[in-house]
């Protein structure tokens, strides 16, 4: 998918779709207008490819951090909460994609990006939102960019920490984490330079196979010497729950990737079907997370580390191999997760400010320069705050409480405003509750994470 694919384009999509499009225009559009017929992607992905990308985008470093998250929530509370948060995330993704489709029909455009959807929501929705219209795209882009850059930072720290854990067994004296992280700057830069999302599909398949292998190895270690289940706390302290919430949200919510994938599908109508890409993918992801988190916390209890791979015996060849292999899988995901951030900055802030006479070569040069800057920024942040678990929780609580819960609710209110909110305006009340959940999660989770990060850095814990 090239950089232009995020723009609204009303270009021919083939004879049948072209005929339907002309018929819609002749009939006046309205409720008969189908936005999907007015999309154009140069490299559309199939349902299977989209599912592969979704699984790879959702199953990242967060899954290996979930056992530590259960330390904050407690075992029983963690199992129940993860299933509920998984359902909440899936529902909010449905709300977001469905509401964007409704707004596209009202505006008679083929595609709306997330920032465009928020701007339209503020302009169409309740009067109290109108004042935020001019600022909505910038605010949404800020959260989207922070989210994707934050994920990339987490991936860099993950690779550095795990490779250092292996190398420390063979290299004496030990080399600092900073140097190990910097060693991977060029490889991360190279994968960020891949501009076509479709080219990453085969690598995502390989990464998914590595992930399955990692689960097998995790199972091998966690099923050994299990303590009595009754010895594991069922509930954690309430003050620690925001840290669990942030990590869980980071792990399960993939709104940035989902929007990009749905927009790039050859058959987007299949995305929201009962047994479509989104439901199948999220059900698989949720139960994988619950199972691995439960077993990891059961095996290591309070000794669990920010990545469960760090709990494996460092001298075991199998443990060393899986740390390297899963680091490779995370490295592959870096290109996928960095893609939305590059597209947002490029299409909203760089290309519009360039001269109309700018050559394609100049535009391409600026794009590659942007990709280099994104990699440099993620490395700078990852080296400055190499606290894997807390970084994961902060990104989840701060970004995804807004992007994954509150913002979709706002967009849905606007999409059905003012006279299609259902009996008793139940959609308004339901979305109001989602907005409250999102705001509370953002404030409480971010405060807890920042407090713990400052405390850890002050105590020299890195």
From TrEMBL:
Residues 1-42 are annotated as: Disordered. It holds the Pfam family Aa_trans. One of its GO terms (cellular component) is vacuolar membrane. Keywords: Membrane, Transmembrane, Transmembrane helix. The keyword Ubl conjugation does not apply. It is a multi-pass membrane protein. The keyword tRNA-binding does not apply. One of its GO terms (molecular function) is L-amino acid transmembrane transporter activity. It is found in: Membrane. Residues 44-450 form the Amino acid transporter transmembrane domain. The chain crosses the membrane at residues 75-97, 139-163, 175-192, 199-223, 243-263, 275-297, 368-385, 391-411, 432-454. This is Amino acid transporter transmembrane domain-containing protein. It comes from Psylliodes chrysocephalus.
């Amino acid at each position: 998918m090239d950089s232009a694919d995020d723009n609204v384009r009303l270009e021919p999509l083939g004879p049948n779709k072209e005929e339907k499009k002309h018929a819609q225009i002749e009939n006046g559009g309205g409720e008969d207008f189908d936005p999907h017929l007015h999309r154009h992607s140069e490299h559309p992905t199939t349902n299977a490819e989209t599912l592969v990308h979704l699984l790879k985008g959702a199953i990242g470093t967060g899954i290996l951090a979930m056992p530590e998250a259960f330390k904050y929530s407690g075992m029983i509370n963690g199992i129940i909460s993860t299933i509920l948060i998984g359902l909440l995330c899936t529902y909010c993704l449905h709300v977001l994609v469905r509401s964007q489709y409704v707004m596209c029909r009202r505006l008679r455009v083929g595609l709306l990006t997330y920032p465009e959807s928020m701007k339209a929501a503020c302009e169409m929705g309740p009067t109290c939102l109108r004042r935020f219209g001019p600022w909505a795209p910038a605010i949404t882009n800020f959260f989207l960019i922070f989210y994707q850059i934050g994920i990339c930072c987490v991936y860099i720290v993950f690779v550095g920490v795990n490779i250092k854990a292996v190398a420390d067994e063979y290299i004496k004296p030990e080399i600092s984490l900073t140097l190990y992280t910097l060693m991977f700057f060029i490889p991360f830069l190279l994968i960020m330079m891949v501009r076509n999302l479709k080219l990453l599909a085969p690598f995502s398949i390989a990464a998914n196979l590595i992930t399955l292998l990692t689960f097998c190895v995790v199972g091998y270690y966690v099923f050994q010497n299990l303590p009595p289940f009754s010895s594991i706390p069922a509930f954690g302290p309430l003050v620690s729950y925001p840290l669990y919430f942030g990590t869980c949200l980071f792990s399960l919510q993939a709104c940035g990737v989902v929007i990009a994938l749905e927009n790039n599908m050859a058959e987007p109508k299949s995305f929201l079907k009962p047994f479509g890409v989104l439901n199948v993918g999220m059900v698989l992801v949720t139960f994988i997370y619950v199972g691995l988190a439960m077993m990891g916390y059961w095996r290591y209890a309070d000794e669990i580390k920010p990545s469960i791979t760090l709990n494996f015996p460092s001298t075991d060849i199998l443990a060393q191999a899986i740390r390297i292999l899963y680091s490779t899988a995370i490295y592959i995901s870096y290109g996928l997760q960095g893609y939305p951030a590059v597209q947002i900055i490029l299409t909203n802030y760089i290309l519009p400010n360039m001269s109309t006479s700018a050559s394609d070569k100049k535009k391409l040069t600026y794009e590659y320069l942007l990709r280099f800057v994104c990699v440099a920024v993620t490395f700078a942040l990852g080296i400055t705050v190499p606290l894997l678990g807390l970084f994961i929780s902060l990104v989840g609580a701060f970004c995804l409480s807004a992007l994954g819960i509150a913002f979709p609710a706002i967009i849905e209110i606007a999409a059905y405003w003012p006279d299609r909110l259902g009996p008793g305006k139940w959609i308004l009340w339901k979305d109001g509750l989602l907005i409250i959940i999102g705001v509370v999660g953002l404030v409480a989770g971010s405060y807890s994470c920042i407090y713990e990060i400052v405390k850890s850095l002050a105590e020299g814990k890195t």
